């Protein structure tokens, strides 16, 4: 099991652990600079660990999610090379002290100031302190370039804040209670010729029948394979925090009596009906206002950065292999 500190390092910077014993190929070229498959593996090392655990019983879903993660990593690495090139064009310089301060902050916050423990953890990944420093320097440059080009934008207006609050208030409310019913269709039924694709199709067909008026309890008793099937799929009142996140996210968004989309949850497909809700207490708009204003400003900055990146990508020769 990957250690907590190692997870922290993996999330802070790419490591060499994913490249050991694997072939290395070129996945993209930016202005003649190659991006290697090893860099992609290094970039998603921590994310891959999580995905492999999350979808250990669903190889098809795992492969699809890994492919998406790798594709995203390639695009991020392409953008990194572009930003490093743009930084060089403007004669940018990152002082050594900035990098030292960054690494000292990591040692202080993640390793309680124990530099030896930090170096030991780096060694476990096959990374040297010199390489880690180079990676952190690149990350600082990328952040500097993005910040420089976030552009000016007007502050969040009262209307924008209010609209944002109303759209997201369910996420901040505490003490919500939800009563749901479920129909669980396993991806592997044990029957000859069964497959996740066929089971998914069955779940979608059942959902369509429910939307057209079929009785949920009767359908659950006939088809569901979870602990609540004999009760017509009905569960007791639960706090949304006690539910699996994928289930809670769907249930919270449903009206009383509503039926959600089929949820792909590890080894099963789940149909969720919201039977009733008891809403908890949400923080007031005034309490959330400073945080909302900050989030809105961040969204506007990101939009400016995305637009700027779209423009400068056209100035570079990018080949995806």
Structural overview:
It contains twelve helices and seven strands. With 321 residues, the chain is α+β, with helices and mostly antiparallel strands. The protein folds into two domains: 4-148, Porin chaperone SurA, peptide-binding domain (Triger factor/SurA peptide-binding fold); 174-278, Chitinase A, domain 3, CATH 3.10.50.40. The strands form two sheets. Strands 4-3-6-5 form a four-stranded antiparallel beta sheet. A hairpin with a 2-residue loop joins strand 1 and strand 2 (33-36). Helix 3 (45-54) packs antiparallel against helix 4 (59-89) and helix 8 (158-172) packs across helix 12 (285-313). It is globular and about 70 Å long. The model is unreliable at 1-21 (pLDDT under 50).
Distance between the termini: 34 Å
Taken in chain order, the helices and strands follow as HEEHHHHHHHEHHEHEEHE
Enumerate how many helices there are, as a single number: 12
- Provide the domain count: 2
Proportion in β-strands: 5-15%
How can the largest sheet be summarized? 4 strands, antiparallel
- Under CATH, the topology of the largest domain can be stated as Triger factor/SurA peptide-binding fold
CATH homologous superfamily label of the largest domain: Porin chaperone SurA, peptide-binding domain
Average pLDDT value?
Answer: 88
Which outline best applies? globular
Assembly context of the chains: single chain
Q: Can you tell me the CATH class of the largest domain? A: Mainly Alpha
Structural category is alpha+beta
Number of DSSP-assigned strands: 7
Question: Strand arrangement, largest sheet?
Answer: 4-3-6-5
Radius of gyration from CA coordinates? 25 Å
CATH architecture identity of the largest domain: Orthogonal Bundle
Helix content: 55-70%
């Amino acid at each position: 099991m990957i250690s907590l500190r190692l997870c922290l390092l993996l999330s802070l910077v790419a490591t060499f652990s994913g490249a050991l014993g694997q072939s290395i190929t070129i996945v993209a070229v930016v202005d003649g600079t190659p991006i290697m498959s090893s860099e992609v593996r290094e970039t998603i090392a921590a994310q891959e660990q999580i995905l492999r655990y999350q979808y250990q019983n669903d190889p098809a879903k795992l492969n699809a999610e890994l492919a998406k993660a790798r594709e995203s990593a390639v695009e991020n690495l392409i953008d990194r090379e572009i930003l490093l090139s743009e930084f060089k064009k403007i004669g940018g310089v990152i002082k050594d002290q900035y990098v030292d301060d960054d690494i000292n902050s990591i040692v202080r916050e993640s390793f309680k100031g124990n530099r030896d423990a930090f170096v030991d953890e780096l060694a476990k990944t096959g990374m040297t302190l010199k390489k880690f420093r180079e990676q952190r320097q690149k990350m600082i440059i990328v952040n500097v370039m993005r910040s420089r080009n976030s552009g000016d934008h007007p502050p969040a207006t009262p209307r924008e804040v209010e609209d944002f609050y109303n759209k997201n208030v369910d996420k901040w409310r505490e003490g919500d209670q939800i009563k749901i019913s479920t129909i669980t269709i396993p991806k592997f039924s044990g029957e000859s010729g069964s497959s996740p694709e066929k089971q998914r199709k069955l779940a979608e067909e059942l959902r369509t029948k429910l939307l057209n008026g079929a009785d949920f309890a009767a359908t659950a008793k006939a088809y569901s394979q979870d602990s609540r099937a004999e009760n017509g799929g009905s569960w007791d009142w639960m706090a949304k925090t006690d539910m699996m996140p994928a289930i809670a996210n769907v249930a919270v968004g449903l009206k009383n009596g509503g039926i959600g989309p089929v949820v792909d949850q590890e080894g099963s497909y789940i149909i969720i009906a919201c039977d009733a809700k008891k809403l908890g207490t949400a923080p007031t708009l005034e309490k959330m206002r400073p945080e909302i204003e900050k989030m809105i400003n961040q969204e506007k900055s990101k939009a400016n950065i995305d637009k700027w990146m779209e423009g400068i990508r056209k100035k570079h020769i990018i080949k995806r292999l």
